[in-house]
Amino acid sequence: MKYLGEKSLSSVLNILLKIIFYISIVVSVIFMVILFIIMFIEPVTDPNSIGINQLNYKFFHEFRSDNKVWEMQKFPLLAKIFILPYVLIVIGFIINIIRKSQQFFKNLRNNVVFIQTNVELLQNISKMVIIVSIMTLDFGSILIGLILLVLTEIFKNGTVLQEEQDLTV
Amino acid sequence: MSIIFRIDRVMADRKISLGELAKRIDLTNSNLSILKTGKARAIRIETLNAICRELECQPGDLLEYAEKKEPEEEKK
Q1: How far, in Å, CA of A90 to CA of A44, rounded?
Q2: If I label A157, which of A71, A73, A116, B47 is the partner at 20 to 30 A Cα–Cα?
Q3: What global pTM score does this model have?
Q4: What residue segments make up the domains of chain A, in order of their start?
Q5: B chain contacts of residue A161, beta-carbon cutoff 8 Å
Q6: What is the CA radius of gyration of chain B?
């Protein structure tokens, strides 16, 4: 199996991550809109209401389940105001991780491995993975972030060696 | 670096172009250019051997040690 260059695992991952990137943007926008509605829009209780209120009634009553998410309605305003940007930041980091990973694999597909850009990409990815894992209290992911940080250092050394090799005539 | 590669001087004496020399020693033009402009970090014995063979010179004719740093290097 080929790992680098054209028609390799890297090129497959590049395409896959590009698709995931666009899907995640759409899903994130929908998710944020739903979260906003759940938290800030007051539910209409009258089934005979018309227009936008009818939509509101349908959303809150027909799609309502025993899901704990609906409990968010009862949150104090300050908590609601805090949650929305917090979630937005986490989503932003996740999308950025996907984007930077895609750029990294694009470079690998082009057979460009040990370059400064890849070092910076890996460094950013590892830092963002650590931040996201702390923000989402998913401490298992910190390990992945730390492994990526070590990998960044290896790439940094590799870049120095590559430069040395390129400038050896 | 204080070591200066004087290949351009020897090439001019032998009236040989960069492309011609690159072809003779089986090196790419860009690699020989790196050597000529002093950007090279290291030179292989194999390359030095080929250059000396083709230019009919000694390694000492190609390499020169300068005590002071050149202004271009100081800028770096």
Answers
A1: 31
A2: B47
A3: 0.79
A4: 1-97, 114-169
A5: none
A6: 12
